[in-house]
Amino acid sequence: MEQVTRNVWTDTTIRGCNPSYVITSDGVVVVDTPQLPTRAVAMRQEAESRGPIRYVINTEHHVDHIFGNFYFKGAGTVVQHQGVYDRFMVVYPELDPFAYAAEAIPTDDPEGAAIFPDRDVYYANPNKGQIVFTGDLTLHVGDHTFELLHTPGHTPGQIAVHVPEERVVFTGDTVFKDCQTWLMTSDIEQWIAALDRIGGLDVDWVVPGHGPVTTRAYLATQRATLLEWKAAVAVAVARGWSREETMARVSFADRCPVDIGQGYMMEYIQTLNAGSLWDKLTAEPRG
Q: Relative to the CA of 79, which of 58, 140, 189, 237 has its CA 20 to 30 Å away?
């Protein structure tokens, strides 16, 4: 794992999110868990070698941030925003999270097949939130403060984890650094407000949901990406393009690669982003 500050470690080299942990004077706090089974087990062992795990915090409900919770049972209290808890490993039309986790095993973690659970076994106890909150929440662990800030946009239950003593913030997928942004069923306006909130923090380091560790300066690039996507689809709608035409013709695939291990999903991301924005921009206004 990569050392970001004296007490902050993250892994930006594996398929899935950037799982991280913070060492305090009273144990370890984990922020997001690896999607790949063997990496989840290895991260737990490494974290526990530095002290007992006090909390496991999930920044969002997408599978690559939460599937590894299964391998952290008994290691700390799981903390989730209500929006994460309510959507935890729920099957949606656009994605079956368990199937998505399973399909990564042969290519990215073949050794993990031996410890990958059956669906029924997994859902019997996936290790969901034990502390569930709305709004913001502050945790004090030893000599460190963990400010869990509700930053919806990418997902409704999205949070950022600000650790002022380390001058670092973990953003989850509010930030995709130098890789394709997944819009999914996001709310662009909320997402931009979330970037503004994170931008107001006094930090030196931003640990994104995907891509290398960065600084606050990159928040402007993420904002521009969101606005460009929305503008491109808005132009398509203004030209009278159908949903299918928009998905076929609006693409930002040439901008940057997909994050590690997901290159085969480039077309899926482009069509999903374009289609979801088309749906929002053409929706009937609520009366």
A: 189
- Separation of alpha carbons 19 and 58, rounded Å: 10
Question: Would you give per-residue pLDDT tens digits along the chain (287 residues)?
Answer: 999 999 999 999 999 999 999 999 999 999 999 999 999 999 999 999 999 999 999 999 999 999 999 999 999 999 999 999 999 999 988 789 999 999 999 999 999 999 999 999 999 999 999 999 999 999 999 999 999 999 999 999 999 999 999 999 999 999 999 999 999 889 999 999 999 999 999 999 999 999 999 999 999 999 999 999 999 999 999 999 999 999 999 999 999 999 998 899 999 999 999 999 999 999 876 55
- Indicate the fold that domain 2-221 takes in CATH: Metallo-beta-lactamase; Chain A (3.60.15)
- Scan for tokens 């085969």, then name that residue: 264
Give the residue carrying structure tokens 């949070």.
159
What's 82-99 look like in SS3?
HHHHHHCCCCECCECHHH
Q: What is the 3-state secondary structure (H, E, C) of 27-58?
A: EEEEECCCCCHHHHHHHHHHHHCCCCEEEEEC
Q: Residue 224 and residue 217: Cα distance in Å, rounded?
A: 12
Residue spans of alpha helices (H) in 90-139:
97-103, 105-108, 119-124
Model pTM above 0.85: yes
Q: Between the CA of residue 215 and those of 30, 156, 177, 226, 263, what are the distances in Å?
A: 21, 24, 10, 18, 25
What one-character-per-residue DSSP string does 180-229 give? ----TT--HHHHHHHHHHHHTS--SEEEEEESS-B-GGGHHHHHHHHHHH
DSSP secondary structure letter of residue 116: P
